[in-house]
Amino acid sequence: MVIKNPDAAEYIEPLKKLFPQGEYWDKLLSDEASDISLVCKARAESLAAFKARMNQLQLESFIDFVDETIDDWERIYFGYKNDGLELEQRRNLLRSQKFGGINIAILNTIAETYGGSVYKWDIPYTPAAFGHARFGLTYMSSIAGMWVVFVYCSVPETNRDGFETAVRRVMLANQTIFFVYGD
Hints:
single chain, 14% strand, alpha+beta, two-stranded antiparallel ribbon, rod-shaped, 3-stranded mixed beta sheet
């Protein structure tokens, strides 16, 4: 939902209607140079600026449009700021963190942010299942598995720490990740 950015002129008449009715007030409000009319114009500009700012802040709540509050997004999702990266790279990392889980598209997005690429990812072992019990046909708990994931990638040596940290933040707690670097 985007709030329409109104023109200040749209507020002048509604503001004038808030004043009491009567000949005295009608005379003051009809004169464009009167103090009351000037106050209405100033308030109308203030209201228009307020609505425009509300729209800007509402757009900041979406990762695709975040600019001004990106430091706060990173502080909440990562616990640190990525000052050395471009704005779009920072947005890509936030997108990957927000959606969570592991897939090749998210891994590639993170790798591209750090100047690399992911060739493939592999889960070579079948996870063990613990705590899987049922009574009748209803499961009492979900399967808790430990996953080992190998990520085959090429990332510059100087960016590997940042890349690995970003990927580990996307992974779930039950996933152990190993990075295999090569060309």
